[in-house]
Amino acid sequence: MKELVEVLAKNLVDFPEQVEVVQTTKDHTIVLELHVAPEDMGKVIGKQGRIAKAIRTVLKAAATKDNIKVILEIIQ
C-alpha cells in the first residue's frame, strides 16, 4: 500500500523528492500519512478533492482483497 501511494503521488507533484509516506498499522487498519511539499498540496488534492478521492478509491480496492481497511491522510 505504501509503495502504491508513493508511485501515485510522485507522478502528480513537481517535487517528487519531498514525497514521503508513513505507514502505521492498528488491528486490521492501515493508516498512511502522505507528506508533500506545500506547493504540491493542490496537485495531490485536486479540484474539490477529486484526485485525493481517486487515490483513496484505488487504495480501498487494493485493500479489499486483503480484507483490511486503509485510511489516507494528506499532510503538508
TrEMBL record:
Q: What main location does UniProt list?
A: cytoplasm
- What keywords is this UniProt entry annotated with? Cell shape, Cell wall biogenesis/degradation, Chaperone, Cytoplasm, RNA-binding
Q: Which GO terms describe its cellular component?
A: cytoplasm
Output the Pfam families linked to this UniProt entry: KH_KhpA-B
Q: Where in the cell is it found?
A: Cytoplasm
> Which branch of life, at top level?
Bacteria
Query: Which GO-annotated molecular functions does the record name?
Result: RNA binding
Residue spans making up a coiled coil are: none
Q: Which GO terms describe its biological process?
A: cell wall organization; peptidoglycan biosynthetic process; regulation of cell shape
Q: Which CDD domains does this one have? A: KH-II_YlqC-like
NCBIfam families in the cross-refs: PRK00468.1 (NF001748)
- Outline the subunit composition: Forms a complex with KhpB.
Report the protein's function: A probable RNA chaperone. Forms a complex with KhpB which binds to cellular RNA and controls its expression. Plays a role in peptidoglycan (PG) homeostasis and cell length regulation.
UniProt lists the family membership as follows: Belongs to the KhpA RNA-binding protein family.
Tell me what this protein is called: RNA-binding protein KhpA
Native organism taxonomy:
Bacteria, Bacillati, Bacillota, Clostridia, Eubacteriales
